[in-house]
């Protein structure tokens, strides 16, 4: 039998301590036992007399030493076995505080905790803050409250102005936030933010992981914005053209480069397909022309040679060719197209043979 633990439960900000006895989970416990253990903890917390039942629903188990919420079963067990207590924190209050902190931070400063200016003041550790947000967004109540305070626009600002690991953690946090429908609704109402993601994608100091996150966020957003997707693409196109003017380059030059970098081909191709599909009919030709001017077709031919048997690549190549009527020689789409043409040719030849045979037989009967 498992050892009994006298567990202490505290609500942050309250001096009162609640007690309960629970049996420590065993490493051999199955999923049902794990769920029963979690439900036991939840039930006890909800039966505490702190504040109101509705208020208690906003409190989640928090590790003060790591400053992270406990979101996995193993971390919960470790916390209970190690400390014999759990601390509950109001995550909605946390969301408000963190948004206020994001508003105040000057992200142009380095991501250190001390102020090198000599003022003696401490600067926030941006990397740590972004890492924490990635953890906090697993809690739906926190995420919804963060969105309520328009935290998303400050998070996008942080991504634009940070570098390295700080940016990667911020991108990961934003990627997690976009799993909530409320964040998509916010973007539908604030489509101007979409332009930021093109700049984020093509920045020169990006790591492989940041580029990967950028593509995932962009394609997922365009796929979920519904009727707003067309407007979003127009904003992306406008930003790509503006970026080209500012940097004295051609629109989409960096984007097309990613096709052959060995990491992002599928994401680039999917994004291009979505942009072409969602562009207004009278602007598709201009978009395609701009893409071709920086080597799109040549890169797609090369991509096909490298990934001739990659199902995802070939599927997206087929979608591109079907939409644009630009044929990539040797691609699955091209091979299938030739097969269908040959089948049609064979059918017509057979049909012609039958007609000739019919005429021959009729002529023979007439001659007799």
**Could you state the order of secondary-structure elements as H and E?**
EEHHEEHEHHHHHHHHHHHHHHH
Structural category is: alpha+beta
- Compute the number of strand runs: 5
**Shape assignment:** elongated
The percent range for strand residues is: 5-15%
- Summed over residues and divided by their number, the pLDDT gives a mean of 86
Q: Name the helicity range.
A: 55-70%
Radius of gyration: 30 Å
Number of helices: 18
Tell me the strand order in the biggest sheet.
2-1-5-3-4
Distance between the termini: 103 Å
Could you list the spans in which at least 5 consecutive residues all have pLDDT below 50? 111-120
- Main β sheet profile: 5 strands, mixed
